[in-house]
Amino acid sequence: MPDSETTRVALVTGGYGGLGTAICKSFARDGYQVVSTYRSPERKEHALEWQRTMASDGLSIELVCMDVSDPESCQQGAKELLERYGRLDVLVNNAGITRDSVMKKMTVKQWHDVIHTNLDGVFNVTHPFLNQMLEQGFGRIVNISSVNGQKGQFGQVNYSAAKAGIHGFTKALAQEVARKGVTVNTVSPGYAATDMVMSVPEEAREKILSQVPIGRLAQPEEVARVVRFLADDESAFITGADYSVNGGMHMH
After folding, report:
1. Alpha helices (H) along 179-251
2. For 192, which DSSP code?
3. Which of 85, 82, 24 is nearest to 55 (CA)?
4. The domain containing residue 113 runs over which residues?
5. Residue 38 bears catalytic tag
6. Is residue 216 domain-resident?
7. What is the rounded end-to-end Cα distance, in angstroms, of the chain?
8. What is the C-alpha to C-alpha distance for residues 243 and 111, in angstroms, rounded to an integer?
9. Catalytic residue among 16, 32, 159, 243
10. What is the mean pLDDT of the chain?
């Protein structure tokens, strides 16, 4: 386990999205050195703008270029991060995309784009960091799935399949690394008040809200709190679990 004087390092993939931002802030405010990924050199300026916004709030968050759908990009990004900091303590696999369509109209590209990013990406990012976590005898891996990976969703066979697969990955890896001080867990949010969801037409949002017993969207910070809890030293006996944060939308 890392020395108490050592600054912990946390990597959040897709960290400058709505949910990713809340997760990054949660760790940064607790004194972690936080690193967010950005997908490609073309997106670097957007990532830097986000980084400057975080800095204006007093939060120092670093960046690394890493396309989670590309194994070579992930290996290079991991190499750069480990050379820079010498360690990774917390990995939050948060990056994800949607390419929604009913199955009969879904293209092969729509299927593969979502699977490569949302499911393959969890493997691609975790793999190059795993040995280092095992060697240091400490690691926290938190994979962001979705309520739609638990219950399925009309028009999302690709997304639902990928998000369900994430928890299968979690349960299997958790068994492999449990004795080495590394925990692996899943968080499955419902609909949160991110820019992406808030941009949905009001009529569609009202339909979503009608399915949520609590009667509102989640705040991104509410999901981030669960992620931060699972990364804590005192959460060492929790592994292979799937935490639902969906306002009662799906109970199982």
Report:
1. 195-198, 202-209, 220-231
2. B
3. 24
4. 9-192+221-243
5. no
6. no
7. 34
8. 26
9. 159
10. 95
pLDDT tens-digit map of 11-31: 999 999 999 999 999 999 999
CA separation for the pair 78, 94 (Å, rounded): 16
Outline where the chain has alpha helix (H): 18-29, 44-56, 71-85, 108-114, 121-136, 147-151, 157-177, 195-198, 202-209, 220-231
Domain count for the chain: 1
What pTM does this model have?
A: 0.95
Residue 59 identity: L
CA distance 67 to 121: 8
Cα–Cα nearest to 94, from 9, 177, 21:
21
Spatial contact of 132 and 86, defined as CB atoms under 8 Å apart: no
Q: Is 138 within a domain? A: yes
In sequence order, what E strands does the chain have? Answer: 9-12, 33-38, 61-65, 90-93, 139-144, 182-189, 242-245
Q: Is residue 151 part of a domain?
A: yes
Q: What is the pLDDT of residues 219-243, one digit of tens each?
A: 999 999 999 999 999 999 999 999 9
Residues 156-177 have pLDDT tens digits of 999 999 999 999 999 999 999 9
Residues of the chain with pLDDT under 50: none
**Any idea which residue has 């997908």 for tokens?**
39
Residue type, 224: A
What CATH number does the domain containing 237 carry?
3.40.50.720
Question: b or e along 149-162 (b: 16 or more beta carbons within 10 Å of the residue's beta carbon)?
Answer: bbeeeeebbbbbbb
Strands (E), 101-237: 139-144, 182-189
Q: Give the pLDDT of residue 205.
A: 84
Is residue 4 situated within a structural domain?
no
